[in-house]
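Re: [ENG-882] Designed sequences occasionally contain unexpected residues at chain ends

Forwarding the minimal case from QA. Structure tokens:
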């Protein structure tokens, strides 16, 4: 291996510094991404010590953006994308126009040219793909109605930026690659034709070829080959879309995921690509930090504050006003506003291209980077502020029958008051399905929460209120009506998440009864400390059933066998209260394999 290779040092140092920074800031109760950004500053060219390869880090980060957008596409069907077009298209266009005007106005006050102002304003108008998706995912909003609106909004912004990147050379008087004339109208028409051709090819041809290809690979029984096929599809389509059609990597990967979302392999593909998404997304934040020159905070603090105000305040108010003007509830306006109150990768690309074309002064790129770093750091605080307004949002929603909560299906929100004492069943696999059938057979109102979107859709089609997502994520239980629930049944095999579900449920409804499915004595012991109604270990209940049958088959009378079974249950219960061995301590809640999802 050549000694001057920069790939391994950049990768290793970037991840190590990101881990150190993320762990350090988490101790201060700050989001880990702040630590990732600071790690980038530490290994960047503007601070002493090791300097990572900036170009290489950016390319590694691009892989993370591709995989992340591919994962979003896997959970975002074309039908859902078209469903939000009435708000996403006018909303994104209007918000881009407002942010661009604000940025151009500030640039005019600084004495910049009109072209510089337009590039600067456009750079401040588009949100970061990685930051938006991470924020929605962490708050359980990715699959909500509001989350779909925010993602649709982001897709429209990305399309607009693709056009801007093609038209900027013409605006600067430089012919675009492959065109002899800088005339805007032919260039715009050609760009739209290429994007349309890409969408047609992917949605028509890809919808048939990609699922068929993964089906053939799945039949080989090789897990690593299937993972490789998923990565090849995501990266291949993203690369091809950029080279052949001029579409961004992120947008190409998103539509590759949309194509695959309608197949039977979407959830497996999402699970296989998740670890790589996480690792490379971290490198994205590190690469952003590497571009930042901290000295600009001292050289031009007022200019930095003005840029930050446009991003966090101007864009948010514009988005909020547009959403409300289009007739959507305040909760939707707040979620979209918080999601877009930052800038990222497209902003860097636009600013760099503007500098290269002589439209934007180098100082403008530094201000864009400063705004990006600070807005990404502050974005969790913006979401926290939005959370404090949720009480007001709910009161406004309660007074308006149109403004349904972003998570709730229509049938949940409009249910009569006497049916709101429901049972919430978390997980609709082999165990949860039986529980739901039994409750519905006796007319008990049930709400199901499940991570599998296809199960949720099937339940809704059958008339069963169901919500898609992870019950361990804050917000989902609240939206399911946990505050009014009489019982919560946790029927999933993911025992390590049950404690978090119980804590969230108790915070919403301290008196709610809870029944939990367990897999070991350690889980039973740990979860029983929360004062739940019952914690049942599947293997033990099976053992009791077999013991009862064995006693009856051996000729023991019904009364004697029931008495023996009662003694056995008491003995086992007493064992549960005894001190556990070190290898069975409560924190050791087992993580079930990915295949044990029922």
């Amino acid at each position: 291996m050549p000694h001057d290779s920069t790939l391994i040092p950049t990768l290793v140092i970037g991840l190590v510094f990101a881990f150190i920074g993320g762990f350090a800031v988490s101790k201060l109760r700050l989001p880990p991404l702040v630590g990732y950004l600071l790690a980038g500053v530490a290994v960047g060219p503007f601070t002493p010590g090791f300097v990572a390869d900036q170009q290489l880090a950016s390319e590694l980060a691009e892989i993370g953006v591709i995989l992340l957008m591919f994962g979003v596409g896997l959970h975002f069907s074309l039908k859902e994308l078209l469903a939000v077009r009435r708000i996403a298209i006018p909303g994104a266009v209007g918000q881009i126009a407002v942010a661009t005007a604000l940025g151009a106005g500030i640039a005019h006050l600084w004495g910049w040219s009109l072209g510089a102002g337009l590039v600067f304003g456009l750079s401040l108008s588009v949100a970061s793909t990685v930051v938006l998706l991470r924020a929605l995912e962490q708050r359980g909003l990715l699959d909500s109605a509001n989350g779909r609106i925010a993602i649709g909004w982001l897709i429209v912004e990305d399309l607009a930026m693709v056009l801007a990147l093609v038209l900027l050379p013409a605006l600067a008087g430089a012919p675009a690659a492959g065109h002899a004339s800088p005339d805007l109208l032919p260039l715009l028409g050609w760009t739209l034709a290429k994007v349309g051709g890409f969408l047609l090819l992917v949605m028509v041809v890809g919808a048939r070829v990609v699922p068929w290809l993964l089906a053939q690979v799945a039949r080989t029984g090789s897990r690593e080959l299937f993972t490789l096929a998923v990565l090849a599809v995501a990266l291949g389509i993203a690369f091809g879309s950029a080279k052949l059609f001029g579409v961004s990597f992120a947008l190409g990967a998103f539509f590759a995921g949309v194509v695959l979302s309608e197949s039977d392999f979407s959830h497996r593909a999402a699970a296989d690509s998740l670890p790589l998404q996480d690792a490379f997304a971290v490198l994205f934040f590190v690469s952003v930090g590497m571009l930042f020159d901290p000295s600009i905070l001292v050289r031009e603090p007022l200019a930095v504050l003005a840029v930050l105000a446009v991003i966090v305040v101007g864009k948010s108010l514009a988005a909020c006003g547009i959403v409300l003007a289009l007739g959507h509830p305040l909760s939707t306006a707040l979620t979209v506003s918080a999601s877009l109150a930052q800038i990222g990768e497209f902003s860097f690309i636009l600013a760099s291209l503007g500098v290269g074309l002589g439209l934007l002064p180098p100082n403008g790129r530094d201000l864009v980077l400063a705004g990006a770093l600070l807005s990404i750091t502050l974005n969790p605080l913006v979401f926290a502020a939005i959370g404090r307004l949720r009480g007001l949002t709910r009161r406004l929603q309660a007074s308006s029958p149109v403004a349904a909560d972003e998570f709730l299906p229509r049938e949940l929100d409009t249910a009569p008051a006497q049916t709101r004492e429901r049972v919430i069943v978390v997980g609709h696999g082999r165990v949860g399905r039986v529980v739901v059938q039994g409750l519905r057979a006796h007319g008990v109102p049930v709400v199901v929460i499940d991570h599998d979107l296809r199960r949720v859709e099937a339940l809704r089609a059958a008339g069963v209120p169901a919500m898609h997502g992870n019950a361990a994520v804050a917000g989902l239980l609240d939206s399911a009506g946990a505050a009014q629930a009489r019982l919560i049944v946790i029927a999933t095999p993911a025992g390590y998440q049950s404690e978090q579900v119980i804590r969230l449920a108790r915070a919403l409804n301290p008196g709610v009864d809870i029944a939990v499915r367990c897999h070991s004595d350690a889980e039973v012991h740990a979860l029983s400390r929360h004062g739940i109604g019952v914690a049942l270990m599947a293997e033990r209940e099976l053992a009791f059933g077999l013991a009862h049958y064995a006693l009856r088959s051996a000729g023991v009378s019904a009364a004697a066998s029931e008495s023996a079974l009662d003694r056995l249950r008491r003995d086992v219960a007493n064992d549960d209260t005894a001190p556990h061995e070190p290898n069975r301590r409560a924190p050791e809640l087992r993580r079930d394999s990915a295949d044990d999802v029922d």
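QA comment: On inspection the terminal residues look reasonable. The first helix runs from residue 7 to 27. Proposing we downgrade this to a documentation issue.
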